Amino acid sequence: MNAAPAAPIPQALLERAKHVRLMVFDVDGVLTDGRLWYGSDGESIKVFHAADGHGLKMLAASGVRIALLSGRRSAAVERRAAELGITQVLQGIDDKRPAFERLLAQAELGADSAGFMGDELVDLPVMTRCRFACAPYEAPEFVRRHAHYVSRAPGGGGAVRELCELLMQAQGTLEARLASYLA
After folding, report:
1. Which residues contact 151 (CB under 8 A, 6 or more apart)?
2. Three-state secondary structure string covering the chain
3. Domains of the chain
4. Could you tell me the sign of the dihedral formed by the alpha carbons of 51, 57, 61, 67, in that order?
5. Closest Cα to residue 59, out of 178, 157, 165?
6. Given a cut of 90, is residue 4 above it in pLDDT?
7. Residue 168 in contact with residue 176, Cβ under 8 Å?
8. For the chain, what is the mean pLDDT?
């Protein structure tokens, strides 16, 4: 998670992030590095970054709802979500926009209160619908063009943590959260 030093965040970006009440994340390429690993018995193996997980916990503790929306199915994703206290986990979703709409309805929120971090073309229908579209820096250029925010850290290597801290900064909850670790 050795990202370049943070540049000042533009005020317009902070204003956009300030209103996010539901943050939805793709899994492969966002919470993982996007590589697909299979064991000898065909089981899928996923590698998650601990710092991303801690960022998700901090963001949830700050009052932002978290959901996962993935095109693939994986028991590892279920387990990691359970460890992090994430209850909204939709997997095996080919068309993500209707699933995103269901998440909004369940949360009783509009798309103007939601963000999404995705890394692939199949994520664009959600990215173009939500208030705050984000992508890890190694997403294809066409996807990055549709993101309001592109992380400096890679997917599966701190991009989620970086985004969580940006959201908390925009919402005025980051400093208090960080200070709580010194108490």
Report:
1. 3, 134, 135, 136, 137, 158, 159, 162, 163
2. CCCCCCCCCCHHHHHHHHCCCEEEECCCCCCCCCCCEECCCCCEECCCCHHHHHHHHHHHHCCCEEEEECCCCCHHHHHHHHHHCCCEEECCCCCHHHHHHHHHHHHCCCHHHEEEECCCHHHHHHHCCCCEEEECCCCCHHHHCCCCEECCCCCCCCHHHHHHHHHHHHCCCHHHHHHCCCC
3. 11-33+48-176 (3.40.50.1000)
4. positive
5. 165
6. no
7. no
8. 94
Which tens digit of pLDDT belongs to each residue from 79-88? 999 999 999 9
Using the structure block, give the residue that is written with the tokens 């909204």: 88
- The amino acid that residue 27 corresponds to is V
Residue 175 has pLDDT above 90, yes or no: yes
